Amino acid sequence: MPPLNGRYIDVHAHFTPPSTEDERVRGWQAMLAKGIYFREPHLWSPERTLAYMDASGTAMQMLSNIPAELRRLRASNDYGASLVRRHPSRFGLLAALPTDDPPAAADEATRARDALDADGFAVTTHYNGVHLGDASLDPLWERLDDWAAVVFVHPDARLPPTLDHPAPLYEVAFDTARTVFDMVFRKTFARFRNITFVIAHCGGAFPALTGRLGLLGNESWVPQGVTADDVEAQTSSLYVDTAATAFPHSLLPAVATVGAGRIVYGSDWGAPCTTESTAETNRRSLGECGALTPEQAAAIGGRALDLFPRAARRMADAE
């Protein structure tokens, strides 16, 4: 591992391919229609991102972006790969997979690995109506299991508002828990043990609800039940990141569920709902909130390099 000197490897950072002003305005209007009241259209740039990374002590960001349409998704992966080629020691690529179309997802995974040199993969909890636990995805998981791939799981931020509240505020946490627990019932994590799953936002609501699932998951009224031991074995195999959740309310359930050694750093940089201020407040809280020992908090910053050896080699070459 290259020397980090206290810098961070950020597994949860988003990018947006270049777009026209009209495209950005249409995207902004779509968010307004879902009750997400951003003041202006979102614009991502590598220059602003690198400036933030330098200011915050972020050595590398693992970039992800998951458009809802295959053509745009492939073009986004191509652009993400170009960013890594231009900044190989600062960016990594988690290539998006279209999990509503398993054959297309398998093809894109192969293309991303072989042609784009992707470091890992990014998927949405449910993509165009298909959840990650769907049995149709088993051939994709088999391929990724053979590769011992890293798969970053992000909730669907395109959901409509809940009780007039924008989905990114809290609904994404429950969306994450629903998908994780469905995968537990379907034994996805148990059957594909070579895949390293990283769940966004400290796992959303799933760590806090894992005890309830272990208690009730095998009762007679639960179809296709799951035992407490199986719940613990599957959930404890997951990694979670710290994006927008570096506080005791989220960290303590995560430590109890997956262990401090399976928490990796995430900022959610590049998402329209993340600003320099919120990202920095979250980053500082990681070491100051008291949920982790100083040693545990310090280890989180560089842990992702163990998961992404290609990225580690690029950083070592730059050093």
From TrEMBL:
<dbReference type="Pfam" id="PF04909">
    <property type="entry name" value="Amidohydro_2"/>
</dbReference>
<dbReference type="GO" id="GO:0047596">
    <property type="term" value="F:6-methylsalicylate decarboxylase activity"/>
</dbReference>
<dbReference type="InterPro" id="IPR006680">
    <property type="entry name" value="Amidohydro-rel"/>
</dbReference>
<dbReference type="GO" id="GO:0016787">
    <property type="term" value="F:hydrolase activity"/>
</dbReference>
<keyword id="KW-0378">Hydrolase</keyword>
<keyword id="KW-0862">Zinc</keyword>
<keyword id="KW-0456">Lyase</keyword>
<dbReference type="GO" id="GO:0046872">
    <property type="term" value="F:metal ion binding"/>
</dbReference>
<dbReference type="InterPro" id="IPR032465">
    <property type="entry name" value="ACMSD"/>
</dbReference>
<keyword id="KW-0479">Metal-binding</keyword>
<protein>
    <recommendedName>
        <fullName>6-methylsalicylate decarboxylase</fullName>
        <ecNumber>4.1.1.52</ecNumber>
    </recommendedName>
</protein>
<feature type="domain" description="Amidohydrolase-related">
    <location>
        <begin position="9"/>
        <end position="302"/>
    </location>
</feature>
<dbReference type="InterPro" id="IPR032466">
    <property type="entry name" value="Metal_Hydrolase"/>
</dbReference>
<dbReference type="GO" id="GO:0019748">
    <property type="term" value="P:secondary metabolic process"/>
</dbReference>
<dbReference type="GO" id="GO:0005829">
    <property type="term" value="C:cytosol"/>
</dbReference>
